[in-house]
Amino acid sequence: MQKAQLALKAHPSHKSLVQVSETVTVGGADLLIVAGPCTVESQAQMEAVASRMALAPVQALRGGVYKPRTSPYDFQGLGLEGLKILAAVRERSGLPVITEVMAISQIAEIATYADVLQVGSRNMQNFDLLKALGSVKRPILLKRGLSATLEEFVMAAEYILSAGNSNVILCERGIRSFDSYTRNVLDLGAVVALKQITHLPVIVDPSHATGKRELVADLARGAIACGADGLIVECHPQPEQSVSDARQALSLEAMVELAESLAPIAAAVGRSLPSTAGIAPRLSLV
Ligand code: PEP
Ligand code: MN
To answer: Which residue's CA lies nearest to atom 9 of ligand 1?
Structure first.
């Protein structure tokens, strides 16, 4: 970390609090649990997710509208239509929304509709994109590159910070290794190390880390036990029908069960799981 400056802890106890919305923060005592589908598919899908999550200890929604797909023949996302869906469910549920930005040309539009802009693994070292995100008045969720070292990860955050945006959240989402049994290998050591090296909030994505829904909940709990500031987890009203990442999607009930199971682990490591009381859902159950 020789060249990192702004991302480093100036003082051993210093931690940055990032404001996700008026009522939701990450990096303090409260955990940030983000849930939602890999891809925004329809208004009905997102309303089903939002209405269920608004009644759970979940503080934000996720959903991609610009999707970095391995194949150009796979669904690429709803784009602007998807952003409007996210904005509508955000308005009705009171839950802030997170979505991925893949190009500089998308920044202004996404920042109009979403609360947090995600930089996906494939763009962790898209330095021009990182620099451009420095002037955005929204927090950035920066995911670790597919095979990025911690030094490369921290330096990618440094790009955003040095370009003027101090609201950066790091996300460990698994790294490539030799074993194809899991999609990636969740690097919990990196979570502990990043919390020691930087003052930035660190959240964990156990969905992309494992690629298998039956592994997600236990790793999510392990991440909180290791000191992660939160989680971002994929879930879907009909997991098997997800247009992308179906194999790792949790059902909505499994997602709620996972979120609720975190409370005692959070308490054991001096953290708390914000209740839904402060968020005041305005959606009725569908
Ligand atoms: C995603 O969050 O849907 C995604 C594509 O994640 P990653 O960039 O970690 O692969
Ligand atoms: Mn996904």
So the answer is: 121
DSSP 8-class letter at 175: B
Distance, in Å, from the CA atom of 66 to the CA atom of 99, rounded to the nearest integer, reads 8
Composition of the chain by helix, strand, coil, percent to 5: 40, 15, 45
User: How many C-beta atoms lie closer than 10 Å to residue 219's C-beta?
Assistant: 19
The DSSP H or E segment spanning 225 is helix 213-225
Residue with tokens 């609090």: 17
Whether pTM > 0.85 for this model: the answer is yes
To the question of domain 18-270 being in CATH 3.20.20.70, the answer is yes
Number of Cβ within a 10 Å radius of residue 164: 12
Regarding the beta carbon of 144 and ligand 1, being less than 6 Å apart is answered: no
Q: How far apart are the first and last CA of the chain?
A: 49
36: left (phi over 0), alpha (psi -120 to 50) or beta: left
Strand partners of residue 272: 30
CA 194 to chain centre: 16
Q: In this model, does residue 278 exceed pLDDT 90? A: no
Ligand 1 site, residue 64, Cβ cutoff 6 A: yes
Q: Measured from the CA of 39, which atom of ligand 1 is nearest?
A: 3
Confidence of residue 276 (pLDDT cuts 50, 70, 90): low
Is any atom of ligand 1 closer than 6 Å to the C-beta of 121?
yes
Residue 277 has what pLDDT? 44
Ligand 1 atom showing the smallest separation from residue 62 Cα: 2
What angle do helix axes 252-268 and 43-53 make, rounded to 10 degrees? 30
Instruction: Tell me the pLDDT of the chain averaged across its residues.
Output: 95
DSSP 106: G
Q: Is the Cβ atom of 68 under 6 angstroms away from ligand 1?
A: yes
Q: Measured over all CA atoms, what is the biggest interatomic distance in the chain, rounded to whole angstroms?
A: 52
Domain ranges of the chain: 18-270
